[in-house]
Write a structure and sequence with these properties.
mainly alpha; Arp2/3 complex 21 kDa subunit ARPC3; two-stranded antiparallel sheet
């Protein structure tokens, strides 16, 4: 296996591991806890090329669905299909779209990181909130009040951290990937 391929696999595994670890750094809330999973998803989107950002999320979801306890609710298909499952599924388009935006704004890394993060948050909630509503049998208003409003401040901080750190990390990642 050539070095470039090893670097890609290593970066994918590293970000999948960081996303997994983020699930364990949490503030318990019902029905959705506050975690750092979304921060690491945003960072992956802003720091990795689209194929690697997408791969890292897919690896994370696959190992969780296979039973490893990497989700906030544990592991296995029951966790993936439970009330927070929509947020997890939403991370797939979040990672890809966020990374595509970062790539499009390569010349303006701070703006790219901001747009990438906002799009990642958007897709996570776009799928997560209706899923939460359906799984919990609650109204749209209740889903928003329990699955979105408590996270506004935390998500704002996560977007800020991503905007500050991602340009430097991405620069180094791209150097690693282009090195022979």
């Amino acid at each position: 296996m050539e070095r470039k391929q090893i670097r890609k696999i290593t970066l994918t595994a590293l970000f999948a591991a960081m996303i997994s670890a983020g699930a364990f750094i949490r503030i318990p809330m019902a029905p959705v806890p506050i975690t750092l999973t979304t921060l690491f998803t945003m960072l992956g989107s802003a720091c990795l090329p689209p194929s690697l950002a997408l791969s890292s999320i897919i690896v994370y979801i696959f190992i969780g669905a296979a039973g490893l306890p990497v989700f906030t609710s544990g592991g296995g298909l029951a966790s993936l299909l439970g009330p927070t499952g929509g947020y997890l599924i939403g991370m797939i388009p979040a990672a890809f779209a966020g990374s595509m935006l970062m790539k499009a704004f390569e010349a303006k890394p701070r703006a790219g990181a901001l747009l990438s993060s906002l799009v990642s948050v958007f897709f996570t909630y776009l799928i997560g909130l209706p899923w939460l509503k359906w799984q919990m049998g609650i109204s749209s208003q209740a889903a928003i009040l329990s699955g979105f409003v408590p996270f506004i401040i935390g998500d704002t901080l996560k977007v800020t951290v991503t905007c500050i750190t991602a340009p430097a990390i991405r620069k180094r990642v791209m150097e690693m990937l282009s090195a022979e």
